[in-house]
Amino acid sequence: MFNRRTLKLAASVITSAILLSGCGLFGKDKAVKEIDPPQDVSYLEDGKSLQQSTGKQGDRTGEVKEEQKATETVKRELYLIDKNGFVVPQTLELPKTDAVAKQALEYLVEGGPVSELLPNGFRAVLPADTRVLGVKLEKDGTIIADFSPEFANYKPEDEKKILQAITWTLTQFDNVKKVKIRINGYDQTVMPVNKTPIQDGVSREDGINMDTSGVVDITNTHPVTVYFLAQQGEHTYYVPVTRRVSNKEKDDIVAVVNELIKGPSYGDGLVSDFQPDVQLVGKPKYEDGKVTLNFNDAIYGSNKKNVISDHVLNSLVLSLTEQKGVESVAITVNGKANLVKEDGKALSEPVTRPENVNTGSF
């Protein structure tokens, strides 16, 4: 089971009155999740524009409309690199535009418009001076991103991070399933520096922030993506990590929960709120997009009785909604649904994935 359809890390986009909250990590504004990029890639000489102003000379109507449009913003998930080297979603306010895919890529460029928006400890992923020459969305959900030759001016160790950031940024839009890359109009079968394969396109199923520690035989495993925590100053944010789990584990929901309980790898800078003695009591139940998990008392951790940590809840929901067909998560403890969130509100309904992840600015 893989690929959410949203973040998302990715589970379909879901509108719900109950959204995750806490620590400024999630936003409640509904993000635009559909994309209609130009169907033909355009190549222009420097200094030329894709669109010419329709306003007549001396007529301020067109100018005023453009000024008003420029002041409107919309939330977008941009995948940036944090201080630990992880590719992490950050939800930022970008100017509203019709060319949403092209804009998202332009905001991944070092020294570009994202510079004034970067949270502390984060950096852009694409090499400086990289230009987005165009995007093209195929009927099968493949989007082709075309970059200028400067795209190849990156360090070898950043190659997979760049590919993951592009893929996960573009697949936040519902009708984008996988990504192909061109450089100056030419299709690329591999990345230009370390030759990472990209021939048939890259999707979220290819993973992000791969963690293969402890895996001896990778051929008998399959990937699942889970969300751990990282800290920047006083602020906490969620980091997606793809683990390889044994093919002997037939239930990926159980596999995800077990990986969350296992926690992050030692020394990678990530943390978890899960206690090591947390266990599932019985098999998870799945029905019409809802997963119901039944835990033992250890799910409460060090909190007061019946209170579940926001970070535990958020990690569960983000991780499980990366699985295909999972839209919401309900939690019980020893068969009883009497949990309370940290804000004192009863956790009486299933929780859906938030529209925006890591919305706090720092």
Automatic annotation (TrEMBL):
It comes from the Bacteria. Residues 57-68 have a biased composition (Basic and acidic residues). Residues 101-192, 253-342 form the GerMN domain. The lineage of its organism: Bacteria, Bacillati, Bacillota, Bacilli, Bacillales. This is Germination protein M. Residues 43-68 are annotated as: Disordered.
